[in-house]
C-alpha cells in the first residue's frame, strides 16, 4: 500500500469513527430524556425527594401506572372519540373543498382562497368567548359534537391550503381519461383522484387527529368536569392540583397520552413523507 493510499485509508477511517461518535452522541441526547422519563414512572414518591440522583428506581413500583390508567380511563375514551370524530368531519369538509380549489374554476375562487389564507393567520383565542356563548345557546357546549365542529377552525384552513396544492399538481387529463372509459365526474374523483391523493389525505387525517388529541385551550373552555373532558385536561389537573407534584403519576399520564399519536405517526410516516415531497 502506497503512502497516499494509507493516508486516504486513515482519513476515511477517522471520518467514519467521528461520524459514529457524533451519531451516538446525538442519539443519546434524544433517547436519554425519554428513557429517564420512562424510568421515573416506576419510582415511588419518596425517591423523588431524596438527595441521591439515580437513573434506576431503588424500589420499583407499578402504582403510578395503575393510578394513571384509573384517572385517565374515561378521559382517554373521550379523547379518542373527539379526535376520531374531528378527523372524519374534517375529511368530509377538507377533501371536497381542496379538490374544488385545486382543480375547478368558479367565480370568486381567488378571493375565497384569500379568505382561507387570512383564517390561517387569525388568532383563534379571540373566538373562544363567542364560540362558548354560541355553543351554549345551541346546546353544543360541553358536548363531543361541539368539539368536533370547533376544531375545524384550526384544522380546515391549513389542511385545505396543503391539500389544494397536492390536487393542483396532479395531471390535468386524469379525469378526462377516466371519463373516456365510462366514469362520471364523481366516480372519476372517487376511483382515480382519491387513490392518487391517498398519501396527502392520510397526512391531513393525521394532523387533524393530532390537533384534536393534543389541544388544551379549546377542550378546557368548552367542557366541564361532568362533560366529555379529554385526557390532556386531566393531565393539567394532575399537574396543577395539590400542594406537591406527584412526578411519577405525571410522567405515567404523559407517556400514556403520548402513546396513541406516536403509534399513529409510526404507521403514517411513509404517507407523510410522500405527501410533503409532492407539495
Proportion of beta-strand residues: under 5%
Report the sheet with the most strands, covering strand number, pairing sense and barrel closure: none
Range of helix content: over 70%
The CATH architecture classification of the largest domain is Orthogonal Bundle
Number of strands: 0
How would you classify the quaternary structure?
single chain
Average pLDDT over all residues: 83
Gyration radius (Cα, Å) is 25 Å
Keywords:
single chain, 279 residues, mainly alpha, MetI-like fold, 2 domains, 11 helices, 0% strand, globular, disordered N terminus
Description:
With 279 residues, this protein is mainly alpha-helical. It folds into two domains: 3-40; 63-278, MetI-like fold (Orthogonal Bundle), CATH 1.10.3720. Helices cover 76% and strands 0% of the residues. It contains eleven helices and no strands. Helix 3 crosses helix 5, helix 5 packs antiparallel against helix 8 (198-214) and helix 8 (198-214) runs antiparallel to helix 11 (247-278). The radius of gyration is 25 Å and the shape is globular. The N and C termini lie far apart (50 Å).
Walk me through the topology.
Blueprint: H1 3-40, H2 63-103, H3 109-121, H4 128-138, H5 144-168, H6 174-180, H7 185-196, H8 198-214, H9 217-221, H10 231-240, H11 247-278
Helix pairs in contact: 2-5, 2-8, 2-10, 2-11, 3-5, 5-8, 6-7, 8-11, 10-11
